[in-house]
Write a structure and sequence with these properties.
With 398 residues, the protein is an alpha/beta fold. The chain folds into two domains: 223 residues, Rossmann fold (3-Layer(aba) Sandwich), CATH 3.40.50; 159 residues, 3-Layer(aba) Sandwich (Rossmann fold). The chain is built from 14 helices and 13 strands. The strands form two sheets. Strands 3-2-1-4-5-6-7 form a seven-stranded parallel β-sheet, sandwiched between helices. Strand 5, helix 5 and strand 6 form a beta-alpha-beta unit. Helix 3 packs parallel to helix 4 and helix 10 crosses helix 13. The longest helix is centred in the N-terminal third of the chain and has 16 residues. The radius of gyration is 22 Å and the shape is globular. 43% of the residues are buried.
């Protein structure tokens, strides 16, 4: 079996690590796997960088000015197609195609004639909307019929001046619906239902959950409390996000919560802060690259609080559960799906701070050890790394 994957990144970020996880499994089975990627760098030995840094920067600039995502990087995309023809893979597995590194019309024109199998894993909603990767916060469902007059024209992928959501929706529909042998994989049942309401519903759709390496993300004893000068009597509430900005709802919810909670609770916030946290009960850790250190942090927390509302899976929720830590999540997108029942924490209504406080009190009253076996069991049952990657390999072979 020879597989060629296409993704924005390789080996970094959640989607990049998913690609290399699948690749490692293929290599162990004696197969071959090339990962073609557009941004950053990688240590994966069988990777192919699409285009040049200059071309990608120009794509980024043109995309921001004209509001068109996937209409540039033509030279790099032609180079990719040449690489595909040389490698002659049995399977092409598409992942995130946005990120300023592909000319979609050129790529899909080739895929329409490709004789092997084509898979598309959706990690967000970008493939079936006119522009955005997520739309629930904007409460916009125009994509079910036709996108136009985008309410999120200035958000990712951002456009400074123009709204081409109508054109992009039409072109995506033409491109994505022109591949005869395409199969779609979604990372949650929530996302699967969204796809079933989109123009992609003409294809076979399979749900395969993302996974957690429970050999790494497990209950881990460490010196984190001592290192951060947190007293044994203080409860730790952990929040993780890629970044924290003053304009984000996640930040506003966090600050409101910190004002209600007393000094007997410490909120550890992981993620790059674009604003200074003034609250004395908030500790910010900008970034943790070490997975083992992250497992120690999850394990040290008394509860994990997920303030994001637009998750097609919610990997950090699953990682916290794998470390035996109960979670509190919003009843939005796939967050509640990953958590499951109250045996693993609590689900609260979106932006309802009073419900968050009550949920925290309830979890603390019950005690973390009550939840721990259920959390660990849920991850091993639904989000096991080897089992879920094997499901993808079986789809390749089907």
């Amino acid at each position: 079996m020879k597989v060629l994957m296409i993704n924005t990144v390789c080996g970094i970020g959640s989607t990049g690590r998913i690609c290399t996880d699948i690749a490692s499994h293929i290599l162990k089975e004696g197969g071959e796997c090339i990962i073609a990627y557009g941004q950053g760098s990688t240590n994966y030995p069988y990777a192919y960088k699409i285009g040049s840094k200059i071309e990608n920067h120009l794509h980024n600039l043109m995309s921001r000015v004209f509001g068109l995502q996937g209409y540039f990087s033509k030279s790099g995309t032609k180079g990719l197609i040449k690489k595909i023809k040389i490698e002659n893979p049995d399977i092409i597995h598409l992942h995130n195609l946005h990120g300023n590194y592909l000319h979609l019309e050129t790529l899909f024109s080739y895929l329409n004639s490709f004789k092997g199998k084509v898979f598309l894993t959706l990690h967000d909603c970008w493939a079936f909307t006119g522009k955005c990767a997520h739309y629930t916060d904007a409460n916009c469902y125009k994509w079910q019929q036709k996108c136009e007059h985008c309410p999120q024209v200035h958000t990712y992928p951002p456009s400074v001046f123009f709204d081409f959501s109508k054109k992009m929706f039409k072109d995506k529909k033409t491109n994505f619906c022109g591949i005869e042998n395409l199969k779609i994989i979604t990372v949650s049942d929530w996302l699967k239902k969204q796809v079933e309401n989109s123009f992609l519903n003409i294809y076979e759709i399979e749900r395969v959950y993302n996974w957690v390496d429970n050999k790494v993300f497990k209950n881990t004893v460490g010196e984190l409390r001592h290192e951060l000068n947190i007293h044994d009597q203080q409860k730790i509430i952990l929040c993780v996000s890629a970044s924290w900005r003053k304009t984000d709802s996640t930040y506003k919810d966090l600050i409101q919560l910190s004002e209600i909670l007393g000094d007997e609770n410490v909120i550890i916030v992981v993620g790059k802060a674009h604003v200074k946290f003034e609250s004395p009960n908030i500790i910010n850790i900008p970034y943790i690259a070490d997975k083992n250190k992250m497992a120690e942090l999850y394990s040290s927390a008394d509860v994990y609080l997920h303030l994001s509302t637009e998750d097609t899976f919610g990997l950090v929720i699953a990682e916290a559960l794998s470390c035996g830590t109960p979670a509190i999540v919003y009843n939005s997108t796939a967050c509640a799906e990953v958590l499951g029942s109250d045996n693993c924490g609590r689900v609260v209504e979106v932006r309802n701070i009073d419900q968050i406080v009550n949920a925290i009190d309830s979890v603390f009253l019950n005690g973390k050890e009550v939840y721990r076996p259920n959390c660990e069991k849920r991850v091993k049952t639904l989000f096991d790394k080897d089992e879920n990657i094997s499901k993808i390999i079986e789809l390749y072979k089907s």
